[in-house]
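[Meeting: bench + compute handoff]

Bench side (C.D.) handed over the final construct sequence. Compute side (W.E.) agreed to return the predicted structure before the next meeting so the bench team could plan truncations. Sequence as handed over:
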Amino acid sequence: MPDLSLDAFPKNSTGHELADLVFVHGIGGHPLKTWQPKNFNQSGFWPEWVAADLPIYRVWSVGYPAAKTMWDKRGSFSLPKRATSLLVNLDAKHLGERPIVFITHSLGGLVVKQLLRVAQDSSEPRLQRFVKNTLGIIFIATPHLGADIATVADRLRIVARPSDALADLKKSGPYLDDLKHWFSAQATKHGWRILAFREGRSVKYGFKAVEDGSADPGISGVRPIDIDADHISICQPETRTSAIYEDTKAFLEELGKKLEPARIETRAVGGDVQIVYEQKPDYPFVDLSICNRGSAKIAVTELRVVKGASIKDEHGSERCLTGPKMKLEFSLRGSHNGRWRRTLRDSVCKLESSECDTFQLQLTSENTLNLVDIDVEFISANSAIAQRYLPIELLIIHSPVSTFNSETEVDSGTISIVKRSDALRALLNRVKLNLWQNRSYAECSNLYPLLMRGAAFVARENLLINWEMLRSIFEGKWEWGPILASFSDFAVENEVPSSIIEYMRMAMRNPTTISGLGFWDTECFSATILSNLMKLRRNSQGNPELTDSAEYLEILDKTLFLPDTENIYSVALACYREIAHRAFTKIHGRGSVEFMIMSLQVQPHDAIAYHELLYDIVNEGTILTRGFQKKIPDLPEVQFNEGKILAFWLNWWEEREGQSLYKSVGWRRHSPRLTSALQAYQTRERTEIETFLCHEDALVRWAAARNRNIAVRHREILTRDSSAIVRLTLARDEHTDLDALAVLSDDESSAVRRWVANHPKLNRRLAEKFVEDESMEVRAFLARNSSCPRDLIERLAQSDVEDVAQSARRQLEVPGK
């Protein structure tokens, strides 16, 4: 068997499984034959029995190279390589995305232990999830400390040529001992349930392949169960009444109780249940029927009403909606057996085959256009597993509309039923859906934005395929922000492929991506996505404060950014970082002060945000009474006074730097960019400055450019920097020499040239060059420079450009000019 293989039982999924169960064979094993008894017949073998008896598990049997000797054509390789290869292949088949259990024989147990170790040490979240999602492991005759047969074979290497697989089982090896201790600690930490069996009979050579002590996994409270079989037949039970199968089945049933009810498979139209809507709902009521189309009795346990998107509507100059935003309320009444009752999460109804029950849904909205999704959870008499039915339709609810000039003229609101496929087609092709005949609603131009903001609910039937289509069309465009926010909303309450979660996680560490996501009204999409990702992280981690803290530090470090040459930066990015900062400081309080002040030195262009945060952290805002508040009483007025803000907090910190109260957060190991930029900004060693000026990160070079200890040779390097903001910093520095200014006078950026034109060291030769500059702004800056010769100012005063001429005339009015 040269390659890895994976067999499923049954071949096709039933759609009801909640977890995966993987059989892993040992040395010389086979994905099927290892588990089949000698008298294998049509009665089957235990992978098939488990699949039939416990349908909550999707059963798999894996095959991999594990030859006994090097003469074996099937090949083999060492335990770490084998485990890594198996891990990657299981991930490629999407195993590990939900709870998983392993049944292992012999070497297979060591492979799974090593697989989990590789997963834990991996930097890839999709591989790490194997550790989190592993429920339990069954070890069958696994030599946790090695086996005598491997030791003998190792001594006879010249004759037998034992393979690497057999060598891995060598008794008393330090590698297996270390693996055993690691696994024991991790099983306790992660709550893995363990069941172990050991062989009770010897193989034909007169000794047990795995001694009793080696078959013990070393887990507190776990004692191996003796089975009356040898090393080969122990994993080949002949009937369902075999001791090993009965014990395994009971163990798996107990594990099944840990599976979360939220892990419910979504089924599209064509299942046992169907929702039928009236064709013309009368706002705010929707009449619907839940029908049992299957042959077995069902119990409908939940009718879930989900607000997939809610946006404020606009009708241009003639129509508008007033009042509070984002309000959508609903209630439900059922009419089973002729009695109306209000219901939602309790047992909604029980339906015989071909029976229907009617309901009335009341949806009330204000000032909004809403996308509402409905699904049904039910249990069939044929299965104990909850299933979820997904209707083919969505609801679009438009609030009542009043005229712009008179709130007494009101159109009463409308509800439309839209096929999910039609909504998806409209979204992908950017086409308009004509839903409303009434003129008031026909003017609505926001249906397309609504579909974007609810894209995940529109696309949920084939989520991953539709995600890839949406991404290929909209990624990098303005629509991508609301679409990505929708998928993050959806992920909080529903199962989403890990590739989508990982994409969002990486996107939220890229300043360019964040800046491009934008915002609508009061919603910043990047902030919505961050909030949802942190909710998902908390659901999967044991200590939310510690994991959140490290996550926020990593986010803040990767999104450190440079302003452009106009000191302008993305509002979306600034909003995103402020939310991350506030969440971080909420965890650590005053302990985050050092981190904030160090960040302020690296991000002075965002000084007002840091100022307000520090103001809130330190003694609830009273800190500014010590002189600073008198100079700057109104915080919004100092947003461009970054120098004053930075000087104040540096002076404040100088007095308190030794107080551990303000620096209890170990932020440096999670903030490599901030640490490097801070060192570049603060160092007094000129050789270090020169090194930082050649750093690959423009943030670090910009910090070095603002270092007060830069020399002439440093300025020469800065004139050639690829970042315009770095060259601009040099042009604004009053200590910059004329040679550097002469180089910058030819800079491709007009922002750099205009600051050279306004420099106090400007000489006549440079001024004459700027009089004819193609940029009006450069000439205007020159006209304001008191160092510019009077005759050149007079020439500028004759300019056809009013701003240039006016600036020059004002300069001529200065006494002595």
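W.E. noted at the follow-up: The longest strand covers residues 298-312. C.D. will use this when planning the next construct.
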